[in-house]
Design goal:
This protein has helices spanning 5-45, 62-78, 90-116, 120-123, 160-175, 178-197, 204-224, 227-244, 249-263, 267-281, 284-295, and strands spanning 48-50, 56-58, 128-132, 139-141, 146-150. It is mainly alpha-helical. The strands form two sheets. Strands 3-5-4 form a three-stranded mixed β-sheet, with helices on both faces. Strands 1-2 form a two-stranded antiparallel ribbon. The model is unreliable at 11-15, 21-29, 31-36, 42-46, 201-219 and 287-296 (pLDDT under 50).
């Protein structure tokens, strides 16, 4: 028993105040869960556009997309194995030569991109070309125009056409606003997860896990529908940029085939082979039509 009636009264008053505050907060939750998605939809709809391939796009606002895609790029790079030992002696000169080659080719392709679309410079003032010290072969990019080539692409000799293709392909993703689409899908799926799982009164840990899972699943579900179209868009833009620099699609394809044959069998080699198959499957008329659309 409490020996102080005044203390008991204060505790009851505090409990009642806490209960009423919680009740008022609970009344606001449904409203917030309805309003936030509407605000997000309004912001995203402001950037509704048409892709180079003619499909409708829902893209995040550029500052938001730059932040999201930059974080995504950093997470991707952090998840890959880094070259164990720094270069030494002649190997450093070779590595530096490769970095200069990437920058030189990228600068040429960027000039071609700005020439074909003068308005592009307003959205992407500058493309930046970087070589990441990663064991794996591959490449990645973000919405702001950062193009990253992994050091591991040199595990087999590659011709200039192949390296130019890798750079131009990532530029194609940026120009076609694929990163902006992915950012929009991430935002929408995150909001959807919060709205659906928020009222469930799950334990906090379980809610976090379920929300994170739903976010990833929702993002994949939203973006997977247009994956073939997006691949073709990036490919067609890349082929157009390379054509403007004097490389035909036949030269690029032949170079990629030679490169894949030299790689042997590993995940990167399989990806290069899938690229060859994808390019070979295109009908030349459709690709040319998309190239013309991208150039406009």
């Amino acid at each position: 028993m409490h020996g102080n009636p005044a203390r008991v009264g204060n505790e009851i008053s505090s409990a009642n105040h806490g209960t009423s505050s919680a009740a008022r907060t609970a009344r606001w939750v449904p409203a917030v869960q309805c309003v936030v998605p509407l605000i997000a939809a309004a912001l995203l709809s402001a950037c509704a556009s048409t892709s180079p391939g003619g499909r409708s796009q829902l893209a995040a606002l550029e500052p938001i997309s730059s932040l999201y895609s930059s974080l995504d790029l950093n997470l991707t790079l952090a998840s890959l194995a880094t070259v164990a030992m720094p270069c030494a002696g002649v190997q450093c000169q070779v590595d530096q030569g490769f970095e200069r080659q990437v920058d030189r080719l990228g600068t040429r392709l960027a000039a071609a991109a700005y020439e074909s679309d003068p308005d592009l410079k307003e959205r992407i003032p500058k493309f930046t070309f970087v070589v990441a010290e990663k064991i794996e072969g591959g490449s990645s990019s973000d919405a702001s125009g950062t193009i990253v080539i992994y050091r591991g692409v040199r595990k087999a000799p590659l011709e200039e056409e192949t390296l130019a293709w890798l750079i131009a392909r990532e530029m194609g993703r940026v120009i076609a606003r694929h990163h902006d689409e992915k950012s929009a899908a991430t935002i929408l799926s995150s909001l959807l997860a919060q709205v659906l799982l928020g009222p469930a009164n799950l334990a906090r840990g379980l809610a976090f896990i379920a929300s994170s899972t739903a976010t990833v699943f929702g993002q994949e579900l939203i973006t997977a529908r247009n994956t073939p179209e997006r691949s073709k868009e990036a490919d067609s833009i890349a082929l157009d940029l390379l054509f403007r620099q004097g490389w035909s699609d036949m030269e690029v394809t032949a170079s990629l085939i030679d490169y894949s044959n030299r790689l042997g069998n590993d995940p990167w080699a399989e990806e290069v082979k899938r690229t060859n198959q994808r390019l070979a499957s295109y009908k030349s008329g459709n690709v040319l039509a998309m190239v013309e659309s991208a150039a406009r």
